[in-house]
Amino acid sequence: MTDVLRIRDLNKSFGGIVVADEVNLDLHAGRVLGLIGPNGAGKTSLFNLVTGVVKPDTGSITLDGQSIDNLPIYQRARLGLARTWQNLRLFPSLSVLDNVMLGPRDYPGEKLTSLIFDARGVARRQAEEQDRAHAILKRTGLAGVAQSRVQDIAYGQQKLVGVARALMNDARCLLLDEPMAGVEGQAYGAIQRVVRDIAESGVAVCVVEHNVAFVRDLCDEGVFMFAGKVLARGTVGELIADPRLTELYFGT
Amino acid sequence: MEYIVTIIILVGLFVILAASFDLIIGYCGLISIAHPIFYAIGAYTSAMLAKEAGVPVPLAMLIGAGAALVSSILVALPSLRVSGDYLLIASIGFQLGLIELAKHFHEIGGAGGLTNIPPFLIREVGREAYAVLVVVIAALTVWFVRWMATGPYGRMMSALRDDELAFSMLGRNAIWVKVSVFGIGSAIAGLAGGLYAHYFRFIEPDQFGLLASSAVLTMVVVGGMRTTWGPVVGAIVLQLLPQAITFFGLPPSVLGPLQGIMFTGLVLVFMFMRPQGLVAASDLWRGREGGARHD
């Protein structure tokens, strides 16, 4: 198993609140890891630390063997780190297609010089990316709403737009933050199928999710977090069966 | 005739200013009202180079635009590294500080202003030719802003405006996009400054202050943000309105404040009654390729 993302001795606290306490975690290519834990366990904070949204107090993170500790968010993304957000963070002034079109690591036309001096090259690459975006929208079941504004589509579909946008990155490591929260019906199966396919194509996937059935069906492995600490690691079935963890999760 | 040509030139210059300001505040969502200071930097640089160093006027104007570009990047870079309203604070501080500095700098005319700026085209070809030049540059500015806003860069600016963090997480360099747009918009304002200086041949620090800021902001808001024709309509309407009230023969001590009140009042009225401005922008970004292809 190839380690794609390696987290070592990660610590972070905000005042007295510890969100990461000596976290050590590896994400492997082709595997889906589920992060489980009650609210406030530090799951989303871990995503924020990995993606550079929040700087850790100590510790190190490598992506494909390369240290990303000192890189800003966008450079981490360009190395193949993609994520979705718990609260969507889509672009409301763009259509579904245009939201997804912004996802490629190397966005054609980002440099003004290439827009001016290589207009044809940019146009050709834009057309290629548009084809890729359409293919991803089809795969995620969003082909019919490609031209819609994101706030006009169902919540489950909006979650899928977030996933589709992250897929455009052609990521090595994909972090999904509560992809199933508020999702029902068709989108449920679609998200599950898409995440499985992504992992099978060799991407290291990490999912934060409260929907235990979804995590159990999807994840190869699970990690239980509590108060910023990784308390246990094993199959999701094992973690759910552990009465000590269940007590921490439900507070009973 | 000379009056009409001068009005056309003024309208043209304000179209350049409003369109380039719309790129910054409208399309990219960068909150700054200090646009006129870059207009001033272009005007003073070009005027001083032509007057004191004998640099040919077209070259001096381009260097003026370059000076506006460099100074805008220097203001923007530290303040745009953090999100929030730091750009607004830093740019206003820069604007007011530089105006005060210019007032005490006698080499550039001080508070009394810089006079005898070398003219361009007017003597050789005529005022009409200068008006044509300004109108052509205004048209090119409007076209350029539209080209930027409706292409791949426009898609980026829309996303950046909506959510900077999500934008960065896609691998896009938000700071670079913001600094680039601010720099380009300011450089265009600098070019307009050069065009102003070599026509009117007199510039003074106070004309680039907050009144000018409110005028340009009003043009964009009243005309319609994020539209091709909004800044054009705004510049025409708001350039002609102050001209119209000058016909009432009011003393300058009343006229100046009245214009300021008019600009502020119009912004307030439009914010309440028609926030989208005279020309309404679509709230959904569409590229110039029009409808995307369907598989």
Rounded to the nearest angstrom, the distance between the terminal CA atoms of chain A is: 37 Å
Shape of chain B: globular
Order of helices and strands of chain A: EEEHEEHEHHHHEHEHEEHH
* Low-confidence sequence ranges of chain A: none
Which structural category do the helix and sheet elements of chain A fall into?
A: alpha/beta
Count of β-strands of chain B: 0
Mean pLDDT of chain A comes to 93
Alpha-carbon Rg of chain A, integer:
19 Å
Looking at CATH, the homologous superfamily of chain A is: P-loop containing nucleotide triphosphate hydrolases
DSSP helical segment count of chain B: 11
β-strand number of chain A: 10
Q: What's the multimeric state?
A: heterodimer
Please describe what this structure looks like.
The complex is a heterodimer of chains A (252) and B (295). Chain A is an alpha/beta fold and 252 residues long. Helix content of chain A is 38%, strand content 25%. Chain A has helices at 43-51, 73-78, 96-101, 112-117, 119-139, 155-167, 186-200, 212-218, 236-241, 243-250; strands at 3-14, 17-28, 32-36, 58-63, 66-67, 81-83, 173-177, 204-208, 221-226, 229-234. In chain A, the strands form two sheets. A six-stranded mixed β-sheet of chain A has the order 6-7-8-3-9-10, sandwiched between helices. A four-stranded antiparallel β-sheet of chain A has the order 2-1-4-5, with helices on one face. In chain A, strand 7 (173-177), helix 7 (186-200) and strand 8 (204-208) form a beta-alpha-beta unit. The longest helix of chain A is centred in the middle third of the chain and has 21 residues, at 119-139. Chain B is mainly α. Chain B has one domain (2-211). Chain B is built from eleven helices and no strands. Chain B has helices at residues 2-27, 35-52, 57-80, 86-103, 127-150, 152-162, 164-169, 174-200, 210-223, 230-246, 252-273. The A-B interface holds A 51, 53, 72-75, 77-78, 82-83, 85, 89-95, 97-99, 101-110, 112, 115, 122, 126, 130-131, 134-135, 138, 143, 146-147, 149, 165, 168-169 and B 151-153, 155-156, 158-159, 161-163, 165-174, 177, 180, 184, 283-287, 291-295.
